[in-house]
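Students often ask why inverse folding is considered easier than folding. One informal answer: many sequences map to the same fold, so there is more than one right answer. In these notes we will look at a single instance of the problem. The structure comes first.
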């Protein structure tokens, strides 16, 4: 099994990093480390999470973020990593805009 992170998810991670770095020095790095650990855990736990808007949704353990992914043919594709404090309509729009 392998994990692929698409550009939109990478952009989400960069935005989260920038936000948390403004809050406190090195908090952005901790954010990235935590989310990387959550994403890596998909190697073991992919497919067990609830489906939301057509994706599996895994909640981050340390931050109010959700990892939206699909699983097919021994590959987990991470499409978005979204802040759950966003307006739910923005989350739906962000997920609909993915070219799956």
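Output (designed amino acids):
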């Amino acid at each position: 099994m392998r994990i692929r992170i698409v550009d939109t998810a990478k952009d989400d991670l960069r935005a989260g990093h920038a936000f948390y770095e403004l809050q406190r020095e090195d908090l952005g790095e901790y954010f990235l480390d935590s989310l990387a650990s959550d994403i890596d855990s998909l190697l073991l736990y992919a497919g067990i999470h609830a489906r939301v808007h057509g994706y599996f949704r895994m909640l981050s353990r340390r931050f109010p973020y959700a990892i939206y992914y699909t699983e097919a043919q021994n590959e987990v594709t991470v499409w978005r990593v979204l802040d759950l404090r966003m307006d739910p309509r923005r989350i739906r729009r962000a997920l609909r805009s993915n070219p799956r």
